[in-house]
Amino acid sequence: MISPQQALTSKQTAAALQALVDQVATYLEEKTVHLVAVANGGIPVARMLAARLPALGSVGIINAAFHRDDIGLQPIPKSFQPTDLPFSIDEADVLLVDDVFATGRTLRASLNELFDQGRPASVRFAVLVDTGNRLLPFHPDFTGLSLPTPPDQKVVVSAHPGARPEEDLLRIHLCPTAH
Prior knowledge:
The chain is an alpha/beta fold and 179 residues long. The chain has one domain: Rossmann fold (3-Layer(aba) Sandwich), CATH 3.40.50. Helix content is 24%, strand content 27%. It has 3 helices and 7 strands. Strands 2-1-3-4-5 form a 5-stranded parallel β-sheet. A two-stranded antiparallel ribbon has the order 6-7. β1, α2 (42-52) and β2 form a beta-alpha-beta unit. The relative contact order is 0.21.
């Protein structure tokens, strides 16, 4: 457990990413999967997965902002990545990727946006960090790190691009929740 405003070490963060890579690699032995990142936090995580697992191919992006039930509390940021799927998801097996799983609201909204784009055969969910603070009945299929956090704290994952995708770095830390 890390204390408030403290970051995981680079070694701990790398271990979380590797644990996620290993779980997804096992899943990929069974089928071909389309990788879809949840904007904005899931994009660097999905790109790192794709760099380490070439079988995943290109990364699609889902922006679920307009499907959130708390949009009045968390307005859409001025800078956001729109939904962009460079492949058809109809009858496809989709791996949805995000950085942090907390309440389940983002996943619910992401599923709504995903199904607005087509009808996948299956959807699995991979997350780098699971806080355990569920409010909705969802659970990630693949988790890099379980990091229980109190309700007044949130997990923040920040990406630091490297010269090549396999050199990208992630930083995981806790900060107070804005009220």
